[in-house]
Amino acid sequence: MGEKAATSEVINRLISALGDSDKNIRSSACEALGKMGEKAATSEVINRLIIALADSDSRVRLSACQALGKMGEKAATSEAINRLISALGDSDNDVRFYACEALGKMGEKAATSEVMNGLVNTMADKDRQVRFSACRAIEKMGQNAVTNDVIDQILLDRGFKNDIKSLPIDCSFCQWTGVLNNYQEHLDEHHSNSTCEYCGEEFNSINKYKEHKIS
Ligand SMILES: [Zn+2]
Ligand SMILES: [Zn+2]
C-alpha cells in the first residue's frame, strides 16, 4: 500500500470514529485529524469537523475547532467560517478560545466583516483568555495589508477611535492592561515562563500552557 492509500485509509477510519457513540473516541478522532493537518483537509473531513462543532460534548467541539485551525487556510470554507463564528458564542470558554484561534489561522479568506464583528464582540468576552485569543486573532489577520484595512474600517464603523495596534487588551496572566501593540513585549518580559498553578510545570508559550490546562 502506497503512502497515499495508507493516508486515505487512516482518514476514512478517523471519519467513522467521528460518528462513534463514545465522546472520547470522537474527540480523539478530531485530535488525530488535526495532527495530520493539511494532509487531512479533504472536503469530507472538513464537513465532518463542521458537524463535530455542534457536538453535545464540549471537548469534541473544542477538538474540532483545534483541528480546523491546524488545517488553516485549507479548511477556510465559508461553511466552516460561519460555524466557527457561531462557536464564538459557545457556552464553553475553551471552545470560544479555540474558535478564535482557528479563525486567526485561516488567513485572508476569514477576514470578512462577519468574522471581524464576531471577534470584536468576543474582545468583550467574560473570560480573560478568550478576550486575549480574540485580540490575537484580529492582530494576526491585521498583519496582512488588505485585511488590515478591512479591520480598521470595521473598528471605525463600530465606533472605535483606534486602529488595531492600539486596541485595549488585558493580560491573561496578570493585572496588566495596555494596547495590543505592546502586549507581546509585556508577555516576553513578564511571562516568558508561565507556571501551572496546579502542578508547577513551566511553559514558554501561552498556547502550550493553555493546552496543558485543558488536558
Ligand atoms: Zn501580564
Ligand atoms: Zn499543571
TrEMBL record:
Protein name from the UniProt record: Uncharacterized protein
Molecular functions per Gene Ontology: oxidoreductase activity
Organism: Rotaria sordida
Pfam family, any one: HEAT_2
